[in-house]
Structures are given as C-alpha cells and as structure tokens.
Amino acid sequence: MTSLGEDLLPSTRRALLHRIAVAQRDGRAPSLVAAVGRQGRTAWSGARTCVDGHAPDADTQYRIGSITKTFTAVLVLRLRDEGLIDLDDPLEKHLPGTGVGGATVFQLLCHSAGLGAETPAPWWERTPGSLRPEIADVLGARPHMHPAGHRHHYSNPGYTLLGSLVEAVRGVSWEEALRREILEPLGMHRTTSAPVAPHAGGWAVHPWADVMLSEPAEDLGIMAPAGQLWSTAEDLLRFAAFLAGGDDRVLSASSVREMRTPAAPVEVGGSGYGLGLQIVGCEGRVLFGHSGSLPGFVAGLWVCEEEDVAAVALANATSGLPAATVAAELLNIVVEAEPRIPEPWRPLPEVDDELLALTGVWHWGTSTFTLSLTGDRGLQLTPLGGTGRGAAFTYRPDGTWAGQNDYYAGETLRVVRKDDGSVDHLDLGSFVFTREPYEAGAAVPGGVDAEGWRGLGG
C-alpha cells in the first residue's frame, strides 16, 4: 500500500484510501492504483493489491484502453490548427479509398460518422493486430451502421481511421507522432505503446470463484490509435493538467476547450461526447475525460475544470471494478472535503466609460436582464429572476461581441446607436433589448402601440 498526499487533510487522505480499498475488495481486482491531482500537481496517490508486501505505485504502468483515443484526437486537432486539414473535410480527401464515403473528420472524432462499434471477428482486443493489416480488414464489408451525422454511435474503427489520417498527413507512424508531439513535450516518459517495467499484468477474475486467468497483451497493429497505450497514474495526471488548461507546445487552451464541448447527439440519458473526450454530469459538476478497458485492464480519467481537480484509477482486471466510476468518486471526495478556495476579488485593471454605460438593466419585451462588464471587454447577460436565456460574450475587433454558450453561442451582440451617437438598443441575433420594456421610440420590431401601457379600463 502507498499513500502520498501531504497537500490534503489527513481525513481526506483516509477517505480516498478507504474508497480504493473498498473498490479493490468489492471489484476483486488483483491491484488498483489511483491518484488525484490538484492545481496541476499530484495531491495524493494510493494503491491496493492482493500481493502481500508488494504494491504498485503511481509509476507502475497499466494498459489504458480507450483513453488512447483522447491522445489520437489531440494529434488530429494539431493538424487542424496547423492548417493541414479541416474538421469538415471528408476523410476521403486525405485518405482516399477507405470506403467510408462522405464521413468527415469531425464526425469520426465525436463518433457520429455512423461506423460500426467493432471490427469484424475475431475480437480485435484479444487477437494480434497482424490479423487486420489493412483498413479494409478493420471496417469489413459493411462499415456503416447508421447515416453519417445522425447519431452518436461509439466506433473503435473510427479512431483507427483517425490514426491512419495522422500517419498520412504527417508522413510518420502514429507512435512517432504521439511521442514527438505529445508525450515528450508533456514529460510523459512512462506512456508507451508496449509495456515497460514496472508494469502490471492483465488478469481475468472468475465470476463465481476467487481464481484468476492471465489475459493476453496483444499488439493491436493498425487499431493502436483506438486503445494501444500503457501509462501510469502520474503520467495521466500530467495529461489531465494539459486537458484542463492546454499547453501551447501541444495544443492551445481554446482547442482543448473545443475538445470538451459536446459535439454529437446522444441517446436519452447518455453522457455527452466532444472531440475525443467524454463529458458527464456528476454530483452537480461537469467532468470531462475518458474511460478505458482492454482484456485484463480497466481505467478512468476525469477532470473538473471548475475545481481544478483531476483523478485517475487503474486496475488490472477485465471486469468487476468500474475504474471510471471510482476515479469520479475520488475526485468528488476531494472537492467535497476541500473545495477550491477562490482567488481574491480584484477590480478590473482599467475602466472604459462607454462599456460601463452599457451595463445595468435591459429588457427583451417584458423579460428583464442585467448586462455586466467582465475582463477583456467581455459582457455577461443574466436573466433577472433566474428565468430566461443568459450568456457570456467576448469582444470582437469590429466592436461587436460573440456569444460563448448555450442558446446564444456564436450569435452576435451589437450596440445600435441613434443619429446623435447615443445608444438606442442592443441587437442580439435580431432580438432587441431596450432600457425600458417596449420602450417608446426604440426600434422594437412590429412597433410600439402609441397609446402605451394601460389598465383594464383603458
């Protein structure tokens, strides 16, 4: 057993250790390693094992399965940011002859290309990749299960295609691009395509008896971009810190934010999926990350941006222990016990009188809103009373603002002035906001009744 975490209270450390101890026992996993990161550094790590006197630690490799997909997505977003591809490009533009028709890079990233979930038999996770040397062997005779763009349907072959796209555009192997463009810049020296000691062995545990069976660790070949990687809890916390804030050596903060924005419709009750990242609601918070599994291993990685906390759980059992759930629970333990202390309030560095004059109460019809000034000339529209559509807006060089979320995402907010230069109204995607409800003389669509407001007898 190991337990590190001098940054956390003793009661929090004990709660974390208790959770992984229960998880390892109830999940009947040969071993379990977990770690929690806070503010970009490891705050705690711990392990449980069935082997007396020996336990893995945060530097022990486990196979991480589909968390590999997030790495592949980062490589693809790098190509887009460099102008080498567009996410709306059909895959066939860069990788002709695949047989996936007009499926786009974007659709492949968010699993909405309509491709099948798995390869043709035999089961790709438990057989050598040499059995499927070509893309045609991965897709089979009927690659499409659904029309492209119509629904979220998780696809392992889809990420094989994205890995092949990286190779075609970069002119190097997926493994080489991964090492050079992500692992080395982020200092993830214990993340590899093949296991490097110390590493855990993969096991299947009998469902009705406490006995184990060794699982094969196959090289997945062309399927590697969907689930090949081995990593450690420590390395995955480094990756989590990158996913939370970006790193210009790898991918900008705006691009990683794009990755964790829901991008495809999901089934009722399902979690969201961005570009290589799962998005889930948990205890009133939004987490992003990914789960992973391959025969002998389960893994989970979650990040809460608001609280700046990340958690990893890795186990070497084919099933039984829900590593992704455990990771989320560890994150919640820390957030509930030791919520993030906010930064001190500070005034804006400077005041723009014209912007300041826009703040205060505005009306859309008879609905009342407040407009607040934020940093970098941004604006925040908030419904008064809690009902209505609010949004944050960022300033554009042309003097307008762009909506950043929800209904108004991408919509333009602009100030409409009278001939004398004074403000007449705000226009938000054709919605007119005035200082008074249905203000007389303002450019309200449909006009304002000249007789004005009246009572029942008016």
TrEMBL record:
SUPFAM superfamilies assigned: beta-lactamase/transpeptidase-like (SSF56601)
Broadest EC class assigned to this enzyme: hydrolase
EC number in record: 3.1.1.103
A single MF term (Gene Ontology): hydrolase activity
Positions of the Beta-lactamase-related domain: 24-331
InterPro entries: AmpC-like, Beta-lactam-related, Beta-lactam/transpept-like, DUF7586
Domain of life (superkingdom): Bacteria
Pfam families according to UniProt: Beta-lactamase (PF00144), DUF7586 (PF24491)
All residue ranges annotated as the DUF7586 domain in the record: 351-435
Magnesium found in the keyword field: no
UniProt keyword list: Hydrolase
Alphabetized PANTHER family for the sequence: D-ALANYL-D-ALANINE CARBOXYPEPTIDASE, D-ALANYL-D-ALANINE-CARBOXYPEPTIDASE/ENDOPEPTIDASE AMPH
Protein name: Serine hydrolase
Organism expressing this protein natively: Streptomyces pakalii
Highest classification ranks of the organism: Bacteria, Bacillati, Actinomycetota, Actinomycetes, Kitasatosporales
